[in-house]
Amino acid sequence: MNHTQSLKESSLxxxxxxxxxxxDDHLLMEYRLTSESADAPQPSTPxxxxxxxxxxxxxxxxxxxxxxxxxxxxxxLLPWIMKVDWLMEVLLRGMAHMQPDSIAxxxxxxxxxxxxxxxxxxxxxxxxxxxxxxxxxxxxFTPVNTTAKVIRTxxxxxxxxxxxxxxxxxxxxxxxxxxxxxxIQTQAERLRARRASA
Length: 198
Known about the structure:
Layout lengths: L2 H17 L2 E12 L16 H19 L1 H4 L4 H21 L8 E8 L3 E5 L8 E8 L3 E14 L6 E9 L2 H25 L1
Antiparallel strand pairs: 1-2, 1-4, 2-3, 3-6, 4-5, 5-6
């Protein structure tokens, strides 16, 4: 085996390992069976609450503040960003109260994410091999669209719902790179926070 071939194989092994590093997180996410219409209400999805709307609107700004440090906190743009968030929240709450089934927004979801798949808690079960259309919003506001195959569905113990484990079957390389960078950055931030508190 020559040196170039050895380097290529080593590089492939590193890429494969990067694909499987994981992190527990809370992300804005939408999901549905690929066979379901994007406009139809999803079965077993709890109705939107004011808290869900506030979380969906406020999370990108909170993530941006957390990652930009003092640069944004002291910026004259911050009050305008907060005003836009407030207006969006007021509009979405009004729409949700008038026509609860009319809006579908990404919901803050507990996930375990890697470059190869994602698991999440869902109020509805899915069958192994079901294909799901997923929309994720990575902090501060990077949308990722993918299709994932359900690998496993397990009922939660002590709570309603199901843990859904999936593997991406359609994910653009750029979007996979966004996910991997998010995981590495999240792990680094948590490590720094642990060291600072020690």
